[in-house]
Design brief:
Layout (H helix, E strand, L loop, with lengths): L2 H17 L8 H4 L3 H4 L3 E2 L2 E2 L24
Bound molecules: zinc ion (ZN) (2 copies).
Length: about 70
């Protein structure tokens, strides 16, 4: 998928989800395959909470953030 299109789709989905009171959050970093970025404390525009929506407490659904109990 084209990164710019993926980002725009994510924004639309995020707005829709918040309007309906539910949010399956997926980091834009994850969408771009930048998992080091989505897990980092520092974003491109400042500090951020790793793997979490900046508009609500939803955690990123990307598999790269899931704990593996049997690891
Ligand atoms: Zn990720
Ligand atoms: Zn959210």
């Amino acid at each position: 998928m084209i990164p710019a299109l993926a980002g725009r789709t994510a924004v639309v989905l995020t707005r829709w989800a918040h309007r309906h009171g539910t949010h399956a959050y997926l980091s834009t970093g994850c969408l771009h395959g930048e998992h080091d970025y989505c897990r980092a404390l520092d974003g491109r525009v400042g500090t951020k909470t790793p793997s979490r929506c900046k508009f609500c407490p939803a955690n990123c659904v990307c598999h790269c953030h899931q704990e593996t109990p049997d690891a």
